[in-house]
């Protein structure tokens, strides 16, 4: 019985944090892309544009939610719900930290602990193709249909190199349980699957990231939903809340693949060097350093209102820095800090590449998948298997 | 007919087999009654799924993993058959421009 | 708990199968079939076949049915037009089907008196990826290799059948 209650609380917590994150990820993306392009991004709605997601939400909710006359109504409404539901389902099996002790109840950080976690995420991303295919077909619009078919073909083509790239570190850790995979990478950075073992999975990581870009329809593989190529691809006929659902599904998939990459290749929530050598203080130092910079700029302000706002933020950050050292919160917060650091870096990589690279043409995209990435992933798997068999007793 | 067992966390194995038989029968019904060639093909896939359920149920009964292996092979064969069958359907459509199997009733077009 | 899950997903599977047979548009039939496969995946989980459940979703529902949906969308298959329904399949077929079902249920109930053995979730732990891997690569190695040749033949056949004529 208490299992249900704890799981409900965890589900509520994770849903809350996740949905807030999914709302603020577009904000982050717009700011990063703007700064890469030497401009400022959203800066009017709230300080540094932080209220922009709220404004977008109000805009989406208050727009007229029309269903065009010529669409297949049932599938038109089903498609965005399917896409979002599947994107959120795959996050439910991702662990966020080790087992912690909350007021005497031992529980895992993360909603579930499946023994087949890796294959479950692959399965959900396989079925996730339907949201896009149905959305495009139901729109009764040739551009949407073309975009949907291209996107579905791209997603199922890149599932193969992704699965093979996932299989290679699985050979080294011998388990499909995501939590056990992270626990086997304990130690320093040299124990992560990226750099450890008979065959460091550098190629596997790169192949997985490339396949992940294609699975989530991000640049450089976003031809199916490109704004200036195919009108808007499969979500041409969608407006307001349904479009927002597709949008959220895409960012949800992005978060899932970044979490998978962190768990499989970058050591999950393990710190860069072991905690015996003081890695527990990195969080405190980072936040404390940010607080110090804010205080410094608060005393030599560039604008008059900075004299008030910056020291307030400085105290907030200093408070967060101290929270990391509280002994009964530290076992939960420290792994979460490292995990967020790595996932955040990978998300930044996604956004950075979006700001930098042009997009592939569709035939170049498919050729790249089948003629280059798939053989490379297979060779990676073969070499890993061979070396693991050679060097394990 | 087996009586309903009192404990809520036990399901008699026979019920899985009856479900498999029902799905198989529905697959046969679809295969006989439908005229669209793709729907006929999907009814065949439904029959294969019913058989898979039967395999897995018996694998549970004997507590061996061999039933799962057979299911795996059935899925592989179904995949190969779906690929070739859909290619054939595409060719038939190209030549006869119809998907109703009633109209594909002479060797010469 | 198992009983409730079994009833719910068995009902869903049968309803989706009936929907497949009854719907006129092939896309609705295809999505009903995906529904059947999803319910069957949950039933496999109840029977302890966790790897097969995941493979069912990845291969069957995620790849084969996507292929079906591609073909339906590409061929722009519309809803079936109603013609005079032929009487023979309905008159001779349905009773035969019911007879078959009755015979199957009777045989099953005679083979499994009182329905036992009972299926409890978690009792069969041998369905994980490790056990299947051991069996495939030791006892069933020859069928495994032969299926790889089968898939190669299927790929070649599909490409030859579906490609455009090069003039």
Give a description of the structure.
The complex is a heterotrimer of chains A (393), B (109) and C (167). Chain A is mostly helical. Chain A has one domain. Chain A is built from 13 helices and two strands. Chain A has a two-stranded antiparallel ribbon. In chain A, helix 3 packs antiparallel against helix 4 and helix 6 packs antiparallel against helix 8. The longest helix of chain A has 35 residues. Chain A is globular and about 60 Å long. Chain B has a domain of 70 residues: Helix Hairpins (Orthogonal Bundle), CATH 1.10.287.3510. Helices cover 72% and strands 2% of the residues of chain B. Chain B is built from three helices and one strand; from the N terminus they run βααα. In chain B, helix 1 packs antiparallel against helix 2 and helix 2 runs antiparallel to helix 3. Chain B is elongated, with a radius of gyration of 18 Å. The N and C termini of chain B lie far apart (53 Å). Chain C is mostly helical and 167 residues long. Chain C has two domains: 119 residues, NADH-ubiquinone/plastoquinone oxidoreductase chain 6, subunit NuoJ (Four Helix Bundle (Hemerythrin (Met), subunit A)), CATH 1.20.120; 40 residues. Chain C is globular, with a radius of gyration of 20 Å. The mean pLDDT of chain C is 87. Chains in contact: A-C, B-C. Chains B and C meet through strand 1, helix 1, helix 2 and helix 3 of B and helix 1, helix 2, helix 3, helix 4 and strand 1 of C. Strand 1 of chain B pairs antiparallel with strand 1 of chain C.
